Prior knowledge:
This protein has helices at 13-32, 46-53, 58-63, 82-91, 137-153, 172-184, 192-200, 211-216, 229-244, 289-292, 307-316, 336-351, 365-374, 385-390, 411-425; strands at residues 36-37, 43-45, 65-68, 74-77, 102-111, 123-132, 159-165, 250-251, 263-271, 279-285, 300-306, 329-333, 356-358, 379-383, 392-397, 403-407. It is of the alpha+beta class. It folds into 3 domains: 13-168 and 227-316, Bira Bifunctional Protein, Domain 2 (BirA Bifunctional Protein, domain 2, 2-Layer Sandwich), CATH 3.30.930.10; 172-219, no CATH class; 329-417, Rossmann fold, CATH 3.40.50. The strands form 3 sheets. It has an 8-stranded mixed β-sheet with strand order 1-5-6-11-10-9-7-8. The protein has a 5-stranded mixed β-sheet with strand order 13-12-14-15-16, sandwiched between helices. The longest helix has 20 residues, at 13-32. The protein binds histidyl-adenosine monophosphate. Histidyl-adenosine monophosphate binds at residues 80-82, 112, 114, 119-121, 124, 126, 128, 130, 258-259, 279-284, 302-306, 308-309.
Amino acid sequence: xxxxxxxxxDILPEEMKRWNFIEKVARQVFSAYGFSEIATPIFExxxxxxxxxxxxxxxxxxxxxxxxxxxxxSLTLRPEGTASVMRAYLENNLDSDGNEATKLFYxxxxxxYERPQKGRxxxxxxxxxxxxxxxxxxxxxxxxxxxxxxxxxxxxxxxxLQINNVGCPECRxxxxxxxxxxxxxxxxxxxxxxxxxWEKNPMRVFDCKQVDxxxxxxxxxxxxxxxxxxxxxxxxxxxxxxxxxxxxxTVNKRLVRGLDYYTRTAFEVVHGKLGAQKAVxxxxxxxxxxxxxxxKSTPGIGFAMGVDRLSLILEQEQVSIPEQRPLNVxxxxxxxxxxxxxxxxxxxxxxxxFSAQIGYEERSLKxxxxxxxxxxxxxxxxxxxxxxxxxxxxxxxxxxxxxxxVPLSELIGKLTDILAPQKRER
Length: 426
Ligand code: HAM
């Protein structure tokens, strides 16, 4: 039997309910903050990611799904959304048009050739947010607040926000020199990846998952102790505002990000229920990215969340997901004529805004009621030769079991009286 490709998976209907819920809450919260949705192509020219994310990042150096098309152009399935959104921002002149920031969000699959494990897939889905146009720490605080409000809106608890400041092109080069000289004394003992990381991109060693490499970093210089004045001010401004809006956070001085475009603020939200892949959301500021890909210098900040991981936590925490569309009426008929009438009635009920379903096979009343039960129908609407003769239908409340004869002409009015408040809730 053919199987799904390693690292990919089907999102089955039960899980899809959680995904739809996640997307719905995201759209609600993000639009309240003034963000508009954007969709970019699934593949881009490879150069966009190489320049944007950085040649020495794990993503670009070993995780991209890159191929040449029929005209021999190098294309890549997007490993993340930020570079694509910046490309779209430039190509479509989405600058803020008098507003101080262009605020965008997106949802969709990303592709990374990583070793698959729980919570880590080769095709995963992200919901991301990008705000372009302001370098002020108030925007950082607002973006983080948005993330926290979204997670709370999902009904999630037990997550932790970690923040750091990874410096800027002014202060980082000097810090990197310190770090390189610290690492040079232990370079032979570092893992294979860090052997080349430490000289080319030494801060990436902080992101290494090998315990030994982490131990060598215990007394390494921290970037936060080498920030320039502007970065320091930015970092303290952010912390002041987060405290003002009651967002709990911890400063994690070792927090660096796997993508090279970050400047100043970097942050992650981790959740204890996720095991090894504990980051549920991550992001930061990228004040030089737009210039890197050919635009004029424009600051920006954003984050992305793993929908697969959010869904895992919702499941483990048994967060209750609101029923998407409860079934109002299941139509049951006992002979051919009443089936046709029920079919027409189903059409009318749906037009009036009720949800209705009908079966396709001939079954006994008992078996049809069983199906109505399984589908969680609020009512069964039963018709047979006797009801037809009298011009009535049997309306059975599937919860209480009580049933009443209702004249056909009064059916819609009666259902509206009972179900209208429920319909409005949707
Ligand atoms: P990232 O940290 O690479 O950042 O990914 C963001 C989130 O996507 C992670 O925190 C995680 O929840 C999820 N994720 C990443 N890789 C996988 C995977 N293989 N399987 C399942 N989930 C995964 C970015 O992509 C940046 N573009 C975020 C950003 C937006 N920074 C600024 N703006």
